[in-house]
Backbone:
């Protein structure tokens, strides 16, 4: 079989590649974080306890100038990371010899506490269990919104708010709490008998519930802390479950947060 001739790359090919990478219509989402900010360079230092120095260096194929880098792309082996010394930028050349710029985006991970006391552990467990209990008493949209046969006359059952808020106060054990409401929910509260327009507070059992307007919420939603307690954000449940299942689930979640389960070799490699 006759080998196909490879044409020598020119400045034109370099320009065309640059234009392709900088095309504003590209479907590839680029982020403003580059290799330098991610501390990624032409040499990657990897820990190796079996080496005399305790490490070894992985060196990527590189070119000193951008023109030499892009000009020799066709001659490079596929499926490898390449380093552009002039740009201080890494690229990936895939199996089809298509070039992709590597850009990094930081991932903010929750830091695990390694010195958590017993009291802190019990407190986090209580908070997790409390959150599930509050989610259990929340009013879903299907119960709160009752459309009548007349399409132009829709009703909202504000009577459901009283027993739900009583349960909420009983769970949190506080005399004064705050809820955030969408603009339509704030309007509906004006028809709710336990709500005072003057103070913008709901009075129940000698306790105060401060209602604040929040335009970032869905207009008919009401939130306590980070939990939706009324509106479309509440998950529909056929029957409320007061069994120990919620406690066991909360216990498992907190236990995994404090002592994350060990990953097997494949999970460590692929995340």
Residues:
């Amino acid at each position: 079989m006759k080998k196909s001739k490879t044409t020598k790359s020119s400045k034109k090919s370099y320009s065309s590649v640059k234009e392709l990478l900088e095309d504003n219509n590209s479907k590839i989402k680029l982020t403003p974080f580059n290799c330098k900010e991610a501390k990624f360079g032409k040499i990657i230092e990897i820990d190796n306890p079996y080496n005399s120095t305790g490490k070894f260096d992985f060196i990527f194929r590189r070119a000193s100038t951008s023109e030499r880098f892009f000009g020799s792309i066709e001659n490079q082996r596929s499926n490898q990371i390449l380093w552009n010394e002039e740009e201080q930028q890494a690229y990936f050349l895939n199996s089809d010899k298509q070039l992709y710029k590597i850009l990094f985006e930081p991932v903010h991970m929750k830091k695990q506490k390694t010195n958590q006391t017993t009291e802190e552990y019990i407190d986090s467990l209580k908070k997790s269990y409390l959150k599930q209990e509050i989610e259990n008493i929340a009013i879903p949209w299907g119960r709160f919104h009752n459309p009548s046969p007349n399409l132009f006359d829709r009703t909202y059952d504000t009577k459901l708010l009283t027993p739900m808020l009583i349960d909420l106060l009983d769970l949190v054990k506080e005399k004064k709490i705050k809820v955030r409401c969408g603009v339509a929910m704030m309007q509906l509260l004006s028809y709710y008998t336990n709500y005072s327009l003057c103070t913008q507070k709901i009075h129940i059992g000698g306790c105060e519930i401060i209602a604040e307007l929040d335009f970032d919420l869905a207009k008919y939603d009401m939130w306590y802390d980070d939990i939706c307690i009324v509106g479309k954000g509440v998950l529909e449940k056929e029957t409320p479950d007061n069994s120990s299942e919620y406690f066991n689930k909360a216990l498992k979640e907190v236990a995994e947060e404090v002592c994350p389960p060990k990953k097997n070799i494949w999970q460590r490699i692929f995340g």
